UniProtKB/TrEMBL annotation:
Keywords: Membrane, Repeat, Transmembrane, Transmembrane helix. The lineage of its organism: Eukaryota, Sar, Stramenopiles, Oomycota, Peronosporomycetes. HEAT repeats lie at residues 1-33, 34-72, 73-111, 246-284, 285-323. It comes from Phytophthora lilii. It comes from the Eukaryota. GO terms for molecular function: protein phosphatase regulator activity. GO terms for cellular component: cytosol; nucleus; protein phosphatase type 2A complex. The chain crosses the membrane at residues 168-186. This is Unnamed protein product.
Amino acid sequence: MMCNDDTPMVRRAAAANIGKFAAAMEKEHIAGMILPLFRALTADDQDSVRLLAIENSAAIAELLSQEENSLHVLPIVRSSVEDRSWRVRFSIAKDFFPLSRAMGTQITESELLGCFSNLLQAEVRAAAAKNLSGYISIIKSELFSSEILPLLSALSQDTAPNVRSTFLLLRFVLQIFFVLMIRYVAAAVSIACMELAPKLGEATSKSTLAPLLLLFLRDEVVDVRLNILKRMELLAEWMASFESVLLPAIADLARDLQWRVREAVILSIPALAGSLGGQYFQEHLLEIYVSAFTDMVGEVRLSATKILPQLLESLGSDYVLQNVMPRLNQIFDKSVIYQERVNVLHALKQMSVEKVSSDLLNLMMTLAIRGAHDKIPNVRFVASMTLEQLCKLADASVVAAQVRYVQEMDTCFCSGVLTLRISCALCRPCLTELVNDADRDVKYYSSIALDAVQG
């Protein structure tokens, strides 16, 4: 048979597919026919055969009873965890959670937990760490806390062993390898910690994970910091308990030299604002958010506009009207480069949602009309697209108001404030003017906007 073929290439193919073959057989024949072959493949003298065979452990365990798993599969797992080849250990480490789930809670708690702990301390600990968040769902929480959580602290501060070599070149190469391995471990553990937080409970997360998360937020590796920031919504439910520990670090990261980190901070703000409320946003997050509109990197500025609908949803139109819109007006007025004004107009377009209040819509349209008269063509055509979206939101009855237009024009310009009725009335003439603009891009976008508005 192929499993016993003299050619390693054939045995590798058999090892890779033995799980599929077992699934296609009747269960009563698996123990007698498949398990001896599986045992032989996992003990093959070629590690490339063993690692492919061990990848099928979970698939085969799912087909067997708990007693059969304990008798046949468990010895194979123990052997593979201590295999002389790191590639075989890596193969079983990366899929240890599916294997444990297939073997059942009893075997996992009594036998596999020790194997998993060993993998978390071996060369393959980064691969094993990816199973952490799943593992808590199949063993008792107190067992997880006593056996696994203590290892997280050590993993989070993983350091390279001293490399001693007679040859300087070899020492240099090995040092690079260990540095890369450390970064890989830190990235894997940071993800696992964030995924564990909702499952551990507030008290355990605060006492055990909070110090680790703070450590990761200040890690020198960019990807580690990003892993925490991108998963901040996982902590949203208990953010009030974490804010005193994590928020100062997040505020520091808003000034990080890496633009991806600054962007991730901005994208995490909706989760923080939704959990901590408008008052906290006003006192601690508003300045961070507003500063993103003048960031030197366009992706960061764009991300600030993208989260506005979420802020509008969690904080409400009145809050945005009173606290965010004045700052956007200020940025528009004091902009040094035209891209900042363009970004503000993009923000208005993002806020063009049905839940926006009439007062907020009024201010948005007023600012967009100002943009339509900007001296920079790029600002004008973005303003035309923004006006298209805003006019679609305006109630038709507003435009058909019975108050005399000329009288209101005198009042509004004297006070410097447009009513929504007048904003809508000014929108179409403004777009009509832009249709005759000297810039062809402005003419094109404004004509599309005017057609959409006139319907």
